[in-house]
Amino acid sequence: MSSMDLPFIGRLTAGARDAISDLAGVTVGHCTLAEGDVQTGVTVVRPHAGDPYRDRVPAAAVVLNGFGKSVGLVQVEELGVLETPIALTNTFSVAAVAQAQIRSCIAANPECGRGLATVNPLVFECNDGFLNDIQRMVVGEPHYLQALANASAQVEEGAVGAGRGMSCFELKGGIGTASRVAGGHTVGALVLANFGKLHQLRIAGAPVGETLAGRRASDASPEKGSIILLLATDAPLDARQLRRLALRAGAGLARTGSVFGHGSGDIALAFSTAYTVPLEATRPMPALAMLHESLIDKLFEAAADSTEQSILRALWRATPVTGRDGNQREALTDLL
């Protein structure tokens, strides 16, 4: 297997971009901080071009392993909607990015928290402390706003944004994305990959990691990584169905070799672009038929395949990074 042989996962076709942005209105932006011991950043996924505080997006999340410090999941579980763009960053920057989301919402909606309801920020994290001096807590509001302003349908992958300092299977990890079309609907995935031991790595079912691990000294330290798995679909699903879809991201994750380790924060969230829910009770609620349950299997397959593909894309697109205290992560393609 050469560095050019990125395998295509599954039997379904990909969308036009093979990215989460194949869903109409979904865009992704990064702000990357890469200087010396600082190797980190912010990634933002916008579910549509409007204001999600006023036009909320149906969503649901699943915690595969809860070693994580995310903000906003409790209310998503209760109400089944997103109220802000989805933000990704490092573990110690969650609070700063959540505050930035709140300030951004207030700037666009001055009555937020006064005449209108408060806003539920939504921030996910992985620990990039091997490559990034996480104690410096350099990420702030300007970086979130920059990532938001950079949001585009052209999704950059690899060691960018929140993925800058992330490791995957003891190699360089980061951001990856993919999409699959099934049953007339599209499912797109985006991952922040920061998990796994090298010997566990499987590529399209092949135990590549065992071979690579045999070439270097054994690392007996426990697996402490994490992954954030985001799914978007244009299928009309309610929050309960979206939770079922989010769970299938775990199937794609497992295929790459993950065992959802004790110290791993593995969280999946799925949202639908088929409709929005208004903030104000005076506006009409959406009236559309949800997808019948017997037709959802194809979406499950698309979710698993696009997730697995996204993780491989994160590995393939990543470049080597040297960070804190000279710590290094090699790129998978260099080893292959």
TrEMBL record:
<comment type="similarity">
    <text>Belongs to the peptidase S58 family.</text>
</comment>
<protein>
    <submittedName>
        <fullName>P1 family peptidase</fullName>
    </submittedName>
</protein>
<dbReference type="InterPro" id="IPR016117">
    <property type="entry name" value="ArgJ-like_dom_sf"/>
</dbReference>
<dbReference type="InterPro" id="IPR005321">
    <property type="entry name" value="Peptidase_S58_DmpA"/>
</dbReference>
<dbReference type="Pfam" id="PF03576">
    <property type="entry name" value="Peptidase_S58"/>
</dbReference>
<dbReference type="GO" id="GO:0004177">
    <property type="term" value="F:aminopeptidase activity"/>
</dbReference>
